[in-house]
Specification:
The complex is a heterodimer. Chain A has two domains: 139 residues, 3-Layer(aba) Sandwich (Peroxisomal Thiolase, Chain A, domain 1), CATH 3.40.47; 219 residues, Thiolase/Chalcone synthase (Peroxisomal Thiolase, Chain A, domain 1), CATH 3.40.47.10. Chain A has 14 helices and eleven strands. A nine-stranded mixed β-sheet of chain A has the order 3-2-4-7-1-8-11-10-9, sandwiched between helices. Chain B is mainly beta. Chain B has two domains: 43 residues, no CATH class; 75 residues, OB fold (Dihydrolipoamide Acetyltransferase, E2P) (Beta Barrel), CATH 2.40.50. Helix content of chain B is 7%, strand content 38%. In chain B, the strands form two sheets. Chain B has a five-stranded mixed barrel. In chain B, strands 2-1-3 form a three-stranded antiparallel β-sheet, with no helix packed on it. Classes of the chains: A alpha/beta, B mainly beta. The interface between A and B is medium-sized, with 34 and 36 residues.
Chain lengths: 390, 129
């Protein structure tokens, strides 16, 4: 049965990038203000908060962040819990909020994600991110995050003939879409030649195949049907949600050309929503690396296994294509403040569905899918969203 | 060989150049790296197993940008290797030029080896058979 009581009535994000001069709590508070008081939703209406943040302990030396952030943002006193599932922290916080509304426990809740990554050195960030891989069996031999996705890329290239140029085309598309998104870290188009610059991070992945280190926050207000009309004439409904996990180790997976958690979470979400991939107008997927977008586009059922690269080459996933993917620029060009990403993906879908995406507006915008995954793909959350007037 | 396997002992075996896998006492499945429950039958009853040291290359990468502790070793290969006994491990790949990864073919036969890192640690590794 589709979910029928969860409505997004407000969604906002801060600018993503190196946000100098502001700290974690200030970035968080800005996103919360934009999603609440600036959208006509009084903070006193919020009954509980679900926060996504990956590893502030290592990045800003701060634990127990949920009450701290809520207090600073003027929401002191309400229940607040932080969710940590690496890069999927934002989406698992969102899922907890969905369950809270659907259960009837609350009518109006806040979902927010935040990460401040640029206040420590790049090697410290690398160390922090590596904590999301298996420390004892993979990180310990020098396998890095780009390395994990590079291994998947090599397997995909071998099995399906995907090329380095196909991956570079994903980066070119991301930068093109982000060029008109004022909240993006990189508002600049790049040529294919530039994307192919052979600065290898983990062969065959190059610098332009990788998402950047970013600061940023995003926030949503979710309500029950009864309350939704109080805040907006055009809510967005979450009608299907799925979550799955997989082995953390790459070596424990039988297929390296697909991420099983993505396939499993997608199946759950489609089944719950009573919809199929062909019913989706567009998708926002987790393109932490270019190959991740190609594989995700297959795992969510938009294209058959092995045909994701061709879809990029043929422009099918472009902003004006038949199945746009990451119409505002994805993690690759908008930035990837880890805990904020899953919430930001829902912000993008909300804005596209209600027709508020400006130059990044997709043509068909009734129904869409978001795909957020964590770490090496050991956690995946997929949500299906529709405009409430359908 | 009769004591209950632990992760600490598994890692120490690699450090000492004598890799051993886990084996499920109930169904016989060979397991590495260690798991608290058998992939095949779910049992948590494990013992040690010697392996043939033969394997095949499943996939690989060459790490160019490495964390601080491995920076002096970069560029280096990390591979996924399927052991003849069926389980897969992550390991260093030796015997190939890290600047010529296009010459490495998936599916090639490999044999167990070890690599002493500049950090002092010993890594599980494989080289062409």
């Amino acid at each position: 049965m589709p979910l029928n009581n969860t409505n997004i009535v407000s969604a906002a994000q801060t600018k993503f990038g190196a946000l100098t001069g502001v700290t974690l709590r200030e970035i968080f508070s800005e996103a919360v203000d934009k999603a609440t008081i600036h959208a006509g939703i009084p903070k006193k209406d919020i009954q509980a908060a679900f926060i996504g943040s990956f590893i502030p302990e290592m990045l800003v030396h701060q634990g127990h962040t949920a009450p701290l952030l809520l207090d600073f943002a003027g929401l002191k006193g309400i229940p607040a819990t932080r969710h940590e599932d690496a890069c999927a922290s934002g989406a698992t916080a969102l899922r907890a909020a969905i369950m809270a509304i659907e259960s009837g426990l609350y009518d109006t809740v806040l979902v927010a994600g935040v990460e401040k990554m640029t206040s420590v050195s790049t090697s410290k960030v690398t160390e922090a991110l590596a904590a999301a891989a298996d420390d004892q069996f993979e990180s310990s031999i020098g396998l890095t995050f780009p390395g994990v996705f590079a291994i998947a890329a090599v397997a995909h290239m071998q099995k399906y003939g995907t090329t380095e140029e196909d991956m570079a085309l994903v980066a070119v598309k991301a930068h093109k879409n982000a060029a008109t998104n004022p909240l993006a870290q990189f508002q600049k188009e790049i040529t294919l030649e530039k994307a192919m610059t052979p600065r290898y991070v983990a062969w065959p992945l190059k610098l332009f195949d990788c998402s950047p280190i970013s600061d940023g926050a995003a926030a949503l207000v979710l309500t029950s049907n009864e309350k939704a009309k109080k805040y907006t004439d055009l809510p967005v409904k979450i009608t299907g949600t799925g979550q799955a996990s997989a082995s953390m180790n790459l070596c424990d997976r039988s297929d390296l050309t697909s991420f099983s958690a993505s396939v499993d979470a997608s199946r759950q979400a489609y089944k719950m929503a009573g919809l199929k991939p062909k019913d989706m107008d567009f998708a926002v997927v987790h393109d932490c690396f270019t190959i991740a977008e190609i594989i995700a586009s297959e795992d969510i059922g938009f294209f058959k296994p092995g045909e994701g690269a061709k879809a990029v080459r043929d422009g099918i996933t472009a902003l004006d294509g038949d199945k746009p993917i990451n119409p505002m620029g994805g993690l690759k060009a908008v930035g990837h403040p880890v805990g904020a990403t899953g919430v930001k993906q829902a912000v993008v879908i909300y804005r596209e569905l209600i027709g508020d995406a400006g130059p990044n507006q997709v043509a068909n915008h009734d129904t869409a899918l978001m795909h957020n995954f964590g770490g090496t793909g050991a956690t995946c959350v997929v949500n299906i969203m529709r405009r409430a007037d359908l | 060989m009769s004591e209950k396997p632990t992760i600490e002992a598994y890692l120490k075996n690699i450090e000492e150049g004598h890799f051993k896998a886990y084996k499920c006492v109930d169904c016989g499945m060979i397991i590495a790296p260690p798991s608290g429950s058998c992939y095949g039958c779910g049992s948590s009853n494990m013992k040690w197993a010697e392996v043939s040291g033969k394997g095949k290359l499943v996939s690989f990468t060459v790490i160019h940008v490495a964390p601080d502790q491995f920076a002096e070793e970069a560029p280096y290969y990390v591979a996924i290797v399927e052991l003849a006994e069926g389980t897969r491990v992550s390991a260093r790949l030796l015997g190939f030029d890290p600047l010529k990864p296009e010459q490495v073919r998936l599916g090639i036969n490999l044999k167990l080896d070890y690599e002493k890192g500049k950090s002092g640690a010993t890594y599980l590794a494989f080289k062409p058979a």
